[in-house]
Amino acid sequence: MLALSSREKGGTVAHRVIELLIGRLITDEQFRDEFLRDPEATLRSLCERGFELNHAEVAALLNTDPQLWVRAANALDPRLQKIGLKNEVTIP
Q: Contact 29/84 with Cβ under 8 angstroms?
């Protein structure tokens, strides 16, 4: 299991972290790709950088259908997306 903060969070703070994480999963192509490849490592990295997630939140994120994030991103207006440039084709 992920090493998470043991500090109890207030409902508002905890909910804000989840909102930020879900928003990033939907709007940030590179982050979404990383999460889809290795969700546990991605969440661990976030926790190491100060995002506090409890075990229930981690379990819920890991148990959510991964295609939900893809479907939501595809339904979102492209102007609201942060497009990853790593897969861009360069024309010589």
A: yes
Q: What is the pLDDT along the chain (92 residues), one digit of tens a residue?
A: 454 444 444 566 678 999 999 999 999 999 999 999 999 999 999 999 999 999 999 999 999 999 999 999 999 998 888 876 555 444 44
Sign of CA dihedral 62, 15, 21, 81: positive
Whether the pTM exceeds 0.85: the reply is no
User: Which residues, at least 6 apart from 76, have a Cβ–Cβ distance to it below 8 Å?
Assistant: 26, 27
Residue ranges of the domains in the chain? 11-80
